[in-house]
Amino acid sequence: MELSYATNPQSLFRKYAKLVTWFSNQQLGRDFLKHNNLFIPNEKLGLLLPNGYIRLGTIGKDKREAQLVVTTRACYAPRLYPALQAIDLVSRWITSFDEAKELLAWYLGLRGQPLWATRGIMFAVSTFNPDANEESTSVDGQVYAGSAGQTWTNLRNRSGDGFEDSTTASNFFDVETSSGDTTNQWTYIGRGVFLFDTSALTSTATITEGGNKFSLYAISIVNDCSQSLSIGLTNPTSNTALANGDFANSHFTFTKQATDITLASMTTSQYNDWTLNTTGDGNISKTGITKFASLSSADMDNTAPAWPGASKQSNVYGYYSDNGSNKPKLVVTYTLPAVGGFLLNFV
Prior knowledge:
Blueprint: H1 12-15, H2 17-24, H3 27-35, E1 45-49, E2 52-60, E3 63-70, H4 77-89, H5 97-107, E4 117-118, E5 121-128, E6 140-150, H6 152-156, E7 162-164, E8 169-177, E9 186-197, E10 206-207, E11 213-223, E12 228-234, E13 252-253, E14 261-262, E15 270-275, H7 278-282, E16 289-296, H8 297-301, E17 313-319, E18 329-337
Antiparallel strand pairs: 1-2, 2-3, 4-5, 5-18, 6-7, 6-9, 8-9, 8-17, 9-16, 10-18, 11-15, 11-17, 11-18, 12-13, 12-14, 12-16
C-alpha cells in the first residue's frame, strides 16, 4: 500500500485526490473513517493523503493557515484504496463528479446498491467471506499431514492427519522439517482451504478479468525454507466442514490462480492481496461456491524446498473467518445487464 504519492505518478490517491478529499469533508466520510479508528480533525481538509492530510484553519478575519500532518504508515490508503481501484476500473464510463461520489459511497458499503448503468450495463463490486462457525454454506480452515521422518513425496502424498475449521487464527500453509540431523526429512505440510458462497452474483453476471482479488490478513510470518504463498483450488468433501481426508491431493488442483507472493515481500498486520489471473477469474462460481486454497510454492510445484536444516519451517499465520474482523475475503468485480438503462442518484 502506497505511503506517499510524491514520486508515484500512477497513484490512485493522486488521481482521485479531489474525490477522497471531498469524502473526508462530508459527515458520511468522517463517520466512516472514525469508525475505522482513523483520526480526522474538526477543521476542513484541503487534501487527504495516503498517510495524512492538509488541515485548513483560520488565524484571523481574512487569513487562513494550512498544516501538513503525516504519519509513518499509510493509514488512510488501506480503507479507501479498494474502492478507488473499483472506480478506476470503470472510470471511462463515469461522466460526472456526482457519479464518482455515488460510486465511492457504494463501493465502501455506505449506500444501497444504485441502479448505476451506462451504455447498457451496470457495474458492481462485491466482497465475499467464508462462513464463520457454525457454517451454513461455506467453510474455511486448514488441513494437514503430519508425521516425523518422512520424505517430501511420502508426506505430501498422505491422505491427511488433521484439520481445523473452527479457529480464529491458524497457518495459511505450513512446511516443517523433522528434528534430528537426517537431511531431507520432513514432518508437516499444511494447506489453507477457503470457500466463498458467490451465488449472489447470479448467472447473468459477467466477471471482469483482472479486477478480482483474494486477500488474507497475516499476523506473523516464518520463512526458514524460502517459500512463496501460492493460490490453488480445493474441493473438500463437504462445503461446510473439513475432514482429515480433505488433505489428499485428489481434493486439490495444483494450478496457480494468481501470481505467487514471496513470504519475504508479505506484510503482517494487514491484508495481502493476490490479483487473480485469467484462470482464477474463470474459477469464480456465479451460481455456487468458489473454492480457493493456499499452499506453499513447493507444495504447489511438487518440488521439495532446499533443505534448510533440522526443525525449520515456513508458514504464514493469520485470521480465518471465525475471527470477528480481518476475515479472508474475495473481492469480485463484475457487470450485470442494465435495469431500465437509467441512473438512480443517491441525492
